[in-house]
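Lab notebook page, bench 4
Experiment: in silico fold of construct C2
Operator: M.H.
Input chain length: 263 residues
Purpose: comparison with the prior construct
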Amino acid sequence: MPRKPRNIKPGYSYHITTRCNNREFKLSRRECREVFLYAIKKALDKYNFQLYALCIMSNHVHYLIAPKQPEELPKIMHFLNWYTAMCFNRMLRRTGHGSTSLTTSFWEKRYYCDGFPASDKERALNTLRYIHANPKAAKMRQSFFYDFSNYGSYERLTDDGLTQWHPAFLRMGNSLEECAKKYKGFCQKYKPKEKTPTQYHWGSKLLAGVHLTNQGSTTNPKKSKSGFPPPPPCQVSETPEVTEVVRQFIAANRAPRDVEIDF
């Protein structure tokens, strides 16, 4: 059966969801989510698109994106999936032959994409709230604040270095402070639908026994308790550029005394 064509039009925002292959929890490691922020920065520098919402979960990622030109959206997603797969396969000692196999070994072949015009305020606000509610709905957080989501930039009006406020958010009040207050109240009214718990796949159990090393550190070549040798140092996770991107994003979106629950 042929794939349904993307609904890509000028002036649209797009809710994108990319899932790990087999929905395995390959992004559970904090290092992976940090490198993901850097990959987004590289994509922004390359394609100069608008990123209105972001939430990096343990086995999937949500974006709300507005490309400069509609035909650039597939290029943006191809770059993000290729670059992150290249980094993560190296970090987690995964293998593949060629860029295509590396990408599909980490991500599902087809990402979810749903677009709507910028003038659709209700759709935009509901999409923003849905993306920002993911950590709370998954019971990873008690509030909407999360280190790898840009909700904090909306409530606290901070600059995380990667995302911008959606025009629909800016139309919620007569001042930025009023917009932030109304958006906070709008989010607090959200009631997520109950989801059936996802079973862990074999890859998740394997990943739990893998230790990610820092660049420049020395590792013992002997096998770990899991029976697998330690992975080689990550080539990007400890560079100054990555550190600065991660520091600014998390500082802008983390809530004081927010408690993280890892899975």
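Observations: Residues 197-235, 258-263 have pLDDT under 50 and may be disordered. The chain has nine helices and four strands.
Next step: discuss at group meeting.
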